[in-house]
Every structure is written in C-alpha cells, then in structure tokens.
Amino acid sequence: xxxxxxxxxxxxxxxxxxxxxxxxxxxxxxxxxxxxxxxxxxxxxxxxxxxxxxxxxxxxxxxxxxxxxxxxxxxxxxxxxxxxxxxxxxxxxxxxxxxxxxxxxxxxxxxxxxxxxxxxxxxxxxxxxxxxxxxxxxxxxxxxxxxxxxxxxxxxxxxxxxxxxxxxxxxxxxxxxxxxxxxxxxxxxxxxxxxxxxxxxxxxxxxxxxxxxxxxxxxxxxxxxxxxxxxxxxxxxxxxxx
Length: 242
Hints:
It is a single chain. By secondary structure, the protein is an alpha/beta fold. It folds into 2 domains: 2-85, no CATH class; 89-233, Cobalamin adenosyltransferase-like (Hypothetical Protein Ta1238, Chain: A, Up-down Bundle). It contains 9 helices and 10 strands. The longest helix has 25 residues, at 89-113. The chain is elongated, with a radius of gyration of 25 Å.
C-alpha cells in the first residue's frame, strides 16, 4: 500500500492551485495530507474501484461517476449523496422556487395590508403548492392533480384566456395607478414565469423534456395569478376597510 504524503499532494495539486487529487487503488492519504487538502479546499477523487482509505463506500459521487471524500465548496447536493456544481440548471431552478416563495410572502403582506384578507388566504394555498416543488424535484414525486383556489387545470387556462366571458373583466395592461395588491400579484406572476423557464432549462434533454408535470403546474399557476389580477380589477374580492 502506497502512502500519499502532504508533499505528494502539494505536488499533485500544484501547491493547491488546481485539483482534483486522484487517490488510486492501493493508495492512502496520510493524516497530514488529508488536513492540508481540506485546508486548501482541493477536491479528492477516488476513481471507480477504489473505495477510499477506510474500505468504506465514498461519501459523495458526481454525475460523471467520480467519488469524493469531501464536499467541495463549489458543489452542492442534487439528491442523496450526488453532488453537482452550484450553477447546475436543477439547482438554479430550486433557487427560483426559493425566490418565488419569498415574493408570495411579500404579496400576502401587501394584500392583507390593503384590506384583502381573502386574497391573502388564497395566496397561502399558492405558497403551500409552490413549497412542494422542491420535493417534486428531489424525490422524483409527481405533481399529481392540479387544483388551485377552486380551479382545475382546464378552468385555469380557460378563465385566464377569456376573462371577459367568465369574470366580466377584459385583459388589461398593469399600470402604476393600479392598486398595490394588483401590482404585488403581478410581480408574483412574473416570478412564476421566470421559474417556469428555469424548470424548462433544468429538465430538457436531447429527447425532449422531462417532468412536464412540473412545467404544467407552473404554467397553470401563472394563469391563476392573472385570474387573481382580473378579479381584483373587477372588484370581485371583498375588501375590509380599516
């Protein structure tokens, strides 16, 4: 069994300036070498067939098949012990979900403050739906039946396409003179659309698009935001004057 010393890994990584350091079958890092690599943040890779220094399974794996003893700072969990770079499209999509949740909370605050508690409660249902998307992605769970604020997927599409027919209010362009509630919901709508595009980038491949259920769910959520704006414009939400 060959020992890789601190001097060896310094040389292999050009003084810590580059990585990874590959530990091959029959090689073991000395404690000093491990400490130095950890301090310098140098990635350690155990190729297939080498289970590391202890004979145990490696702690992390990458999509390319490399195995790692430590998690590099530039990588994060895709799922389980699988690591990807932090700019991976799936991670970017999860970041958009996080931003969307934050925007919904702000919209709830605005709507409640403007005297629309019923709308704030509807947005609570939206928030619960959005918070499930990380689970849909990480655990490969299906979105399932879409029903939001009393609307099914076909109704969401139909009402948002023909609001004059169903809600008595035609399409309109948001304006700065609109109520803070309308503008807050409109901001949520734009973040939903941005998240939908991030989902498309995350799940497309050469053969088409995976997770069409996630993309459909976000598309119909965008429709719901437009329906909420239409209903606000038409005065269909009860308002409590403080």
